[in-house]
Design brief:
4-stranded mixed sheet; Spore Coat Polysaccharide Biosynthesis Protein SpsA, Chain A; 356 residues; alpha/beta; globular
Length: 356
């Protein structure tokens, strides 16, 4: 039994299209070794939090087609994998998680919602920050998110505006802000009151259900119907009820509407591994500013990502500047480094599912 205890849930259902052709439907980026040569990002995420909550209390929320490869990886018990029956954005993901805990009779738990696609260093400091966030959620009965102190005026992240201090490196949330333009991002960084939205959340089961009933009543009602169906092992009905949940982000559906929301400032190095250009920050770089992985021969190349995932081919480049070159067994990607985010647009144009 885990009642009156803490659990961690790692969200791992994304597709990672910006890392195509490495990332595929059956092997998205969280199942790749992008930040550690020995472990997948999901394995890293599990190992990072397990010392705080116990390995038996680490859960993974994912898509149905990823349940089997995650089971086969053996990084959490089989019953600790929650496979969502359909895509319903992060609101659906976290409602599914809550319903599964309710169906198992776990009403009194505290939950840390974590990510599988971030590079997080200094794991002891990470666990200390998670512990602080959970303690704040337990003492206030509110919803807590984790904010990252901006190191640059980033336009690709959402921001959180912090207000009144409620403890060391903890504030009441004033509001959430969507991804800004460059000038707005600069003003956020200069103010010192804004944090990057990490997508990590902390709450008690009771607080989540209470706030959800006010912010999104239809999702709250559907969640309880899902839990009832899971309890009676009627999985078809559970799926039908799950599809009644609005297809919304948890930020829009809940966090922006909730009355009692706090932000805890991250006390550890963090980076979002969102596209190939992030590898310049998360992987070793040679003297010419290149990230070189796999069987690669390069001459007079600067500022490039040269990634060869093929075991029977060499990736060769000469005179390349600021480009991304990725080779797998069945595909090659070439792109300017500044267009790394646009790889997702390219994937949308590929008609042959064999390559997705």
């Amino acid at each position: 039994m885990i009642d009156d205890m803490r659990v961690a849930v790692i969200m791992a259902g994304g597709s990672g299209e910006r890392f195509w052709p490495l990332s595929r439907k059956q092997r998205p980026k969280q199942l790749l070794r992008l930040t550690d040569p020995e472990k997948t990002m999901l394995h890293e995420a599990v190992d990072r939090i397990a010392p705080l909550v116990g390995a038996e209390n680490v859960y993974i929320a994912t898509a149905p087609h990823l349940a089997e490869p995650i089971h086969n990886a053996g990084i959490v018990p089989v019953n600790n994998v929650f496979a969502e029956p359909d895509k319903r954005n992060t609101l659906g993901c976290l409602a599914w998680v809550s319903a599964n805990f309710l169906a198992r009779g776990h009403d009194e738990i505290s939950i840390a919602i974590l990510t599988a696609d971030h590079k997080i260093e200094e794991p002891e400091r990470f666990r200390a920050t998670v512990n602080q966030a959970l303690s704040l959620a337990e003492s206030t009965g509110g919803l807590v998110t984790m904010g990252i102190t901006p190191t640059r005026p980033e336009t690709g992240y959402g921001y959180i505006e912090g207000g009144e201090e409620v403890g060391p490196a903890a504030r009441k949330v004033v509001r959430f802000r969507e991804k800004p333009d460059l000038e707005t991002a600069k003003s956020f960084v200069e103010s010192g009151n804004f944090f990057w939205n990490s997508g990590m959340f902390f709450w008690t089961q009771k607080a989540f259900l209470s706030e959800l009933s006010n912010a999104e009543p239809s999702a709250h009602d559907a969640l309880h119907l899902v839990a009832g169906s899971l309890t009676s092992e009627d999985h078809g009905a559970a799926t039908d009820h799950f599809r009644m949940i609005p297809n919304l982000s948890i930020d829009y559906a809940l966090m922006e509407k909730a009355k009692d929301v706090y932000v805890v400032q991250a006390q550890f190095p963090w980076d979002d591994v969102g596209a190939f250009d992030s590898l310049f920050r998360t992987m070793p770089v040679d003297l010419d500013g290149n990230v070189v992985i796999g069987n690669v021969s390069a001459k007079d190349c600067n500022g490039c990502v040269l990634y060869n995932d093929s075991s029977d081919r060499v990736l060769a480049a000469v005179g390349m500047k600021n480009v991304i070159m990725v080779q797998t067994g069945d595909a090659v990607l070439l792109a300017p480094a500044h267009d790394a985010q646009r790889v997702k647009e390219l994937v949308a144009m590929i008609d042959d599912a064999t390559y997705l």
